[in-house]
Amino acid sequence: MSQRITIDPVTRIEGHLRIDCEIEQGKVVKAWSSGTMWRGMEQILQGKDPRDAWIIVQRICGVCTTIHAIASVRAVENALGMAVPVNAQYIRNIILAAHTLHDHIVHFYQLSALDWVDIVSALKADPQKAEDLLRGLSDWPLNSAAEFSRVQRKIHDLAASGQLGIFANGYGGHPAMALPPEVNLIAVAHYLQALECQRDATRIVAMLGGKTPHIQNLAVGGVANPINLDAPNVLNMERLMYLKTFIDRLGDFIEQVYRVDTALILAHYPEWLSLGQGADNYLCAPELPVDGPGETFLLPGGYLENGTFRPITSHRDPYLMKGIEESARHAWYQDDQPLAPWEGLTRPHYTGWQDDGKYSWVKAPSFYGKTVEMGPLAWLMCSLAVGHEPTGKHLAHIGADFRRLSGLELGPDQLPSTAGRIVGRAVHCCVLRETLAQQWQALVTNIGNGDHETFIKHDIPQSGEIRGVGFVEAPRGMLSHWIVIKDGKIANYQAVVPSTWNASPRGNQDEPGPYERSLVGTPVADPAKPLEVVRTIHSFDPCMACAVHIVDTTGAEVTAVRVV
């Protein structure tokens, strides 16, 4: 006899997601992933000026606003076949890197930490033992018994008041919680410190982008950041030096706190290195272009299919562009067959939930017919396959700390897992922290050499048809925007987002999407409190592309449990 549980909505994500699981003998045997809201963003863009698209598409998501904007301007520039000034590339890269660092820090501490950390348990901790635990692992000045005691008093006051606030609906006391009290106390302290740290990343985006969320400085052809070293109200050396202070502080937190915490959590949950594999195939795009045409990148891309790797070195690679299709066989649209994005149709047709039919507003993308996982794990797997030295270096750091704390080895065969996604995100964060500093230095050096250009004027053809695609390796994985421009206006626009790949329903051949496959085999101690299911879903860093920023810090609620 089996049980069917429905988690709707899944909280601590951005957007609307429903997960159904069939449980037999304490394990998930089948799962369904359903996006539960449709907004028609792609229809909204039809008939608009292509130069305005980047402003509109930022509203696709409340978290990835900046990422959608960059993908959109790249799509139009690709259609026009144009280059942009190298200063514009540097500025975009700094914004993209800072945005991604913010996303990773918030995801690890504010969005997924409550899946692993028992807040109230920290009241039993010995602050001195917590300090001793981190000695030799980190030089972070706030890893002191005095600071841990202060945080413990704060938790005590919250608990005594009966108002745990954002921690009230967590999974405290759940049998799957494994952290000792001292590690729980460390995690709560770093949770609070991360609130301040992530602000530094946001400040970088806002200083260059004009505001955040929804930056204002982009333009098809470059950026709207005038450079004048002698003017007080534009991008000058004083502002650039101020920017550097935030970059430096971010680096300290990422390497002394975030990277160490990843190993610390992993050491107490090693079983999650064998749970949660979402797909056999991984895809990522090269990122951070450092030349005007966008042909040379700091970070590699590639496709890993069942252990066989193919590098992708260009956003214009025909192999990359021709391989992507989307199927609506199990989604609420009129058209079932796989379509390439430029020919993509978005014609809603709601028919109600059908376990073996249509059950989601999310389409099912594929790469040459294969189900593919996107995100930090995909980036990590592809970067290791190509031999990217910074990736290997930071993974080795985490592996060494993991070995010291647990006595276990972290092997490459363990990475395709729930815990592997957490590792991938931490490694990506460390690598981007280094490239953020490099891009700041490259911008300063180029300005010092007398190059102040940030924008190249462009014209949109007012007759005929042109097509373009803009790729971005976003925090959640490869994002692509596909545009068809006809007679100067947008004739078709399709966004294939990472959550579409990962949260997809079954594909054209009825194969499960990455979320759905990753849950099969997951142990569930208490079907009424399916913490284990939520851990894996959150490990993907799901972003369901909702226009309203929904970040609920409570635990997910089971809305239905029935015997099947």
What does the model show?
The chain is an alpha+beta fold and 564 residues long. It is 40% helix and 16% strand. The chain contains 15 helices and 16 strands. Strands 3-2-1-16 form a four-stranded antiparallel sheet. A three-stranded antiparallel sheet has the order 6-9-10, with helices on one face. A three-stranded antiparallel sheet has the order 13-14-15. A hairpin with a 2-residue loop joins strand 9 (301-305) and strand 10. The model is unreliable at 545-557 (pLDDT under 50).
Q: What is the secondary structure topology, with strand pairs?
A:
Elements: E1 3-7, E2 17-24, E3 27-35, H1 41-45, H2 53-57, H3 65-80, H4 86-111, H5 127-134, H6 145-161, H7 181-209, E4 218-219, E5 222-223, H8 237-268, E6 281-284, E7 287-289, E8 297-299, E9 301-305, E10 308-312, H9 318-322, E11 324-327, E12 364-367, H10 376-386, H11 389-406, H12 418-448, E13 465-474, E14 477-486, E15 489-496, H13 498-502, H14 514-519, H15 531-539, E16 558-563
Throw out a few tags for this protein:
alpha+beta, globular, 564 residues, 3-stranded antiparallel sheet, single chain
Helix content range: 25-40%
* Sequence of strands across the biggest β-sheet: 3-2-1-16
Over all CA atoms, what is the radius of gyration?
A: 23 Å
General shape: globular
By helix and strand content, what is the structural category?
Answer: alpha+beta
Total strands: the figure is 16
What is the count of helical runs?
15
Largest beta-sheet characterization: 4 strands, antiparallel
N/C terminus separation: 7 Å
Strand content: 15-25%
**Uncertain runs:** 545-557
Q: Give the averaged pLDDT, no decimals.
A: 93
